[in-house]
Design a protein that fits this description.
The protein is of the alpha+beta class. The chain has three helices and six strands; from the N terminus they run E-E-H-E-E-E-E-H-H. The protein is flat.
Length: about 150
């Protein structure tokens, strides 16, 4: 009979809010010009010249504890909008290279079908349909490639 695992007592590291390294803001009280990375992405911007977070967006749980600094992993880091830059747009050659890389990972080497997902080529060496010996449904692979009958490696 295996031994039961002893649980360690959880140590809460609390830092007073006045000793926190960065200023902290609750949701709804963030000043103008500070946004999270996700908000930057929605605005079509990248962090650009931001060297790091300027402030911390406290989680909802810490909003009820005004004296303590937020130490939870759900906190957000705020960046300055004026230092952000527009997102870079890939060139046609970069898009072509990405398409070829994705095509190599999603095309079956035996049947030549290009699937909508990455194939387990390292473990199986082929698509699942060729490895198991069945005909895949048409909605799993792209219709632009002509369906070729799977050659079973018997």
């Amino acid at each position: 009979m295996p031994r039961t695992r002893r649980r360690r007592p959880r140590q809460v590291t609390r830092v007073p809010r006045s000793d926190a390294l960065l200023p902290e803001f609750d949701r709804g009280s963030v000043p103008e010009g500070l946004v999270t990375r996700r908000a930057l992405r929605d605005m079509g911007l990248s962090p650009g010249d931001n060297q790091g977070p300027v402030a911390i967006l406290r989680c909802r749980l810490c909003a009820t504890r005004p004296n303590w600094s937020c130490r939870h992993p759900t906190r957000g880091f705020l960046l300055r909008v004026d230092l952000a830059r527009p997102k870079r747009i890939p060139t046609l050659a970069q898009e072509l290279a990405l398409d070829r890389a994705v095509a190599a990972r999603s095309t079956g080497p035996k049947c030549g079908r290009r699937y909508y997902y990455c194939l387990p080529l390292r473990t199986l060496g082929s698509c699942d349909a060729c490895a198991q010996g069945y005909e895949p449904t048409p909605d799993t692979y792209m219709a632009s490639t002509p369906p070729v009958a799977c050659r079973l490696a018997a």
